[in-house]
Amino acid sequence: MTDDLYERYKEALRVGHVAVLRGAPQDAMAAYRAAAAIAPSRALPHTSLGGVLLRLGHLEEALVEYAAAVARAPHDEGALLGQAEALTTAGQRVDAALALDHVAEIQEAAGRLPEAADTLRRALNLEDSPERARRQRGLQREIRLSVGDQAAEQLLARALRLRDEPIDNALGSVRSATAAGQPEVTPAVGVMEGPLDGSLVIGTGGETQHGPTGAELLVAAEAADLAGDSGTLRSLLLQTARAYAHEGRLEAGLDAAHRLLMCDPSDVDAHLVLVELYVARDWNSLATEKLILLGRLAELNNDQETRQRLCAVASRAFPNDERLGALCA
Fold it and tell me: What is the DSSP string of 119-173?
């Protein structure tokens, strides 16, 4: 592929990812199809298109796109996992389990044994197979031999945790100020700003909140909007979303974050706030999809700083999700 074609391919992918983040699936599909036409041998446009089609309920078309992705990249985890999800949705549990078997083989070959054991568990949930169960037991024995019984139990406990389990107690508690010069806010429901990536984390606190409330910050944001002060408006909308989250008013927090994204769809801070609000609502699949898309955009833009922030969020919120492992590579 020439440099010019590659740049056009990257731009088409970028447009598609941004369209998904903006909630414009038709625009996303058009961009992904354009990327597929520019680079017919690449799997990612088909994987991305399959994800959009699956979310829209176009199951048969999604299956076609995932099959095209796997045909182009038979060892691509993202394509195989997407295909497994679509096949499960279609009720094709045996085929979905086979796709997960392949993912487990890839993970085992890469030395990611706890992830491979967990993937086989998911496959067993779809189809109970003696051979599959034997493979999983073999992986568990290998993990124990390599790290010892106690460490193995810890690794397996993390790997075998249900993926949709609420993670309120898993993310911990880190305090920080809401902004320079503002009083520190201690969350009423355990949601606060993290020091490494500027996003929110979910904790278990029950303390009283001090400092400006979400409603007060929203009034200030409205004033900044009327004054045409876009920089202050952005800062205040972020603080508003976080303050509402502190108060347990997650819908109001979502509204504030979405309002900011209407002004700037590429605002990484706003997207990271949304990720943690999704986690707080147990919308883990939406949070994961957003992190994956943000990671793809950061890679296309060669934005290492954003990748580090995404890695921090993904490692804290979804430590065992193999789809997010690439963010920290």
Answer: HHHHHHHHS--HHHHHHHHHHHHHHHHHH-HHHHHHHHHHHTS-TTS--TTTS--
pLDDT, average across residues 219-242 = 82
Distance (Å, whole) CA 212 – CA 119: 45
Whose structure tokens read 């800062």?
A: 235
Cβ-based neighbour number of residue 4 at 10 Å: 8
Contact 122, 320 (CB under 8 A): no
Asked if 312 and 196 count as a contact pair (C-beta separation under 8 A), the reply is yes
pTM of the model: 0.57
Asked if residues 81 and 326 have their Cβ atoms less than 8 Å apart, the reply is: no
Q: In this structure, are residues 294 and 268 in contact, taking their beta carbons and an 8 Å threshold?
A: yes
What is each CA distance from 251 to 178, 206, 223, 257, in whole angstroms? 19, 19, 22, 10
Q: What is the tally of helices (H) and strands (E) in the chain? A: 15, 2
Q: What is the DSSP string of 80-130?
A: HHHHHHHHHHTT-HHHHHHHHHHHHHHHHHTT-HHHHHHHHHHHHHHS--H
Helix axes 284-300, 44-55, angle to 10 degrees: 150
Report the C-alpha gap between 182 and 211 in whole angstroms. Answer: 7
Instruction: Compute the Cα dihedral for 285, 287, 288, 294 and give only its sign.
Output: positive
Amino acid at position 223, single letter = A
Given the DSSP bridges, would you call strands 191-193 and 200-202 parallel, antiparallel or unpaired?
Answer: antiparallel
* pLDDT tens by residue, 305-321: 888 888 888 888 888 77
CB 63 within 8 A of CB 95: no
Q: Which of 286, 288, 312, 309 is nearest to 298 (CA)?
A: 309
Q: How many residues does the chain have?
A: 329
